[in-house]
């Protein structure tokens, strides 16, 4: 692999998949830390949103991890799990419905 060359399976072999797993791990740790500490990622802060449980309490690690895993799956098939919120009576995305979490809008 030459400097500046794209990291691809054919040029990096098994390291490519390890690299991708590391990227997913970094994103997961970022989301889990933010959701369990403040309920907000940086983007959620900008839009005054917070992830909470059905009862309005902060997310525990288990709920945050389930929300993240289901969120990845919700985006996978053409974002159908996210678009579900337009059909849901409470306007919840499928990963929020299944993980028993909510995204609430905060007062400014």
Features:
108 residues; 6 helices
Q: What low-confidence regions span 5 or more consecutive residues with pLDDT below 50?
A: none
Q: Roughly what percent helix?
A: 40-55%
The overall average pLDDT, rounded, is 92
Number-wise, the strands total 2
Structure explained in plain terms:
- The structure is a single chain.
- The protein has 108 residues and is mostly helical.
- It has helices at residues 9-12, 14-37, 42-46, 61-75, 80-83, 94-99, and strands at residues 49-53, 101-105.
- It has a two-stranded antiparallel sheet with strand order 1-2.
- The termini are far apart.
Topology of helices and strands:
Blueprint: H1 9-12, H2 14-37, H3 42-46, E1 49-53, H4 61-75, H5 80-83, H6 94-99, E2 101-105
Antiparallel strand pairs: 1-2
In short:
This protein is mainly alpha-helical and 108 residues long.
């Amino acid at each position: 692999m030459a400097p500046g060359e794209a990291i691809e399976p054919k040029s990096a072999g098994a390291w490519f998949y390890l690299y991708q797993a590391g990227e997913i791990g970094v994103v997961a740790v970022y989301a889990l830390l933010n959701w369990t500490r403040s309920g907000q990622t940086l983007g959620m802060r900008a839009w005054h949103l917070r992830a909470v449980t059905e009862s309005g309490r902060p997310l525990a690690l288990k709920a945050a991890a389930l929300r993240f895993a289901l969120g990845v799956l919700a985006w996978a098939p053409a974002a159908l799990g996210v678009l579900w919120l337009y059909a849901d009576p409470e306007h919840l995305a499928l990963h929020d419905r299944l993980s028993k979490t909510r995204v609430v809008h905060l007062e400014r």
